[in-house]
Design goal:
Elements lengths: L1 H37 L1 E7 L5 H12 L4 E7 L4 E7 L5 H10 L11 H5 L21 H5 L4
The chain binds copper (II) ion.
Copper (II) ion binds next to helix 2.
Length: 146
């Protein structure tokens, strides 16, 4: 009889231990999720363009870069906001992809061949001002540091 009681106690003890282990695992998983988010970088830079079709082309080009999670071009301000995983890509890769689709960014001139193939309404003026909000100036942008 005493022996039976003892084995019940042992089983209960094992039960508690495995519960504790499960809890610990959950905590570790959520820590990993947090550190993934820290690797995301968000920034914005000037891109020339005219209309909603330009917006589609520019954003599609940005999304074509592996690691880009979000791309939103503002046709009034001539600014694109991008979020990307900096372990997978970098800012210049996004500039280059947009330039290859025919659009000037503030660091890379757009491909002339791609520009010629854009619809007439999209053939923007190469002298167009970028970053028209006044919120983001070229100087502020550079001082974001690298
Ligand atoms: Cu357009």
């Amino acid at each position: 009889m005493k022996k039976a009681m003892l084995s019940v106690a042992v089983i209960v003890a094992i039960g508690f231990t495995s519960c504790k282990n499960n809890t610990k695992k959950d905590v570790e998983t959520s820590n990993t999720a947090v550190s993934t988010e820290v690797a995301m970088i968000s920034l914005s830079f000037g891109v020339r363009g005219n209309c909603g079709m330009c917006k589609k082309t520019i954003e599609k080009a940005a999304h074509g870069v592996d690691g880009v999670e979000r791309a939103n071009w503002d046709k009034n301000k001539k600014i694109i906001e991008v979020s990307f995983d900096d372990t997978e890509t970098n800012e210049m890769a996004i500039h280059n992809a947009i330039a290859a689709s025919g659009y000037d960014t503030e660091k890379v001139a757009g491909s002339e061949d791609a520009y010629k193939n854009l619809p007439d309404c999209c053939q923007y003026d190469h002298d167009m001002l970028m970053n028209q909000s006044g919120d983001i100036k070229a100087d502020d942008y550079t001082s974001q540091g690298h």
